[in-house]
Amino acid sequence: MLHFRQKEVGLAHLDRDDLGKLNDMITLDDGRRVEYTHNQELTTIRGFVTGEWVLNVHMYNKRDSNPTLVEVRIDKLNPKVQTLFYRKIVMKKRWEEVTVTRFVMTSQGEIISWDDLPKKLLKLASLPRDAGGVG
Q1: Residues 6+ apart with CB under 8 A from 91
Q2: Domain that includes residue 100, residue range
Q3: DSSP string covering 47-99
Q4: Looking at residue 25, what is its pLDDT?
Q5: Considering the domain boundaries, does residue 2 fall inside one?
Q6: Which of 29, 40, 61, 78 has its CA 20 to 30 A from that of 2?
Q7: pLDDT per residue over 2-53, tens digit each?
Q8: Residue 102: inside a domain, yes or no?
């Protein structure tokens, strides 16, 4: 499972771990500060791995009470860029986990089935006390 403390697992790599509003201010070369409000995380999978894949989104921390719109897109890059999946979800609270999609991939990179049957990937013992866990 990829996350901020384990950015590489097998052929998968978390290329960008966005910190939300914490890193939205950018200082340009001329000293001007610009706010960039588009938060984005990127993961690359450098090959085809046969079997079921589960894509969950986890709201690690939330500093305000407003719902957060999350857009998830899966692109296949070779031999051309092709969007295979796109979905918007709304997350409302800290430590929320949502199964966005599950799919089965062949060794040739073909997706032979899709579903969104929930599957928790986080372990209860790793939850902070104020999120309902025992840790």
Answers
A1: 57, 59, 62, 67, 68, 70, 98
A2: 8-17+38-131
A3: S---EEEEEEEE-----SSS-EEEEEEEEE-SSS-EEEEEEEEEE-STT-EEE
A4: 80
A5: no
A6: 78
A7: 766 777 888 888 887 777 777 778 889 999 998 877 777 788 888 888 999 9
A8: yes
Predicted model pTM = 0.75
Asked whether residue 1 is domain-assigned, the answer is no
Instruction: Convert the pLDDT of each residue in 47-103 to its tens digit.
Output: 888 999 999 998 888 888 999 888 899 999 888 999 999 999 999 999 999 999 999
Number of domains in the chain: 1
Of the candidates 45, 53, 42, the one whose C-alpha atom is nearest the C-alpha of residue 9 is 45
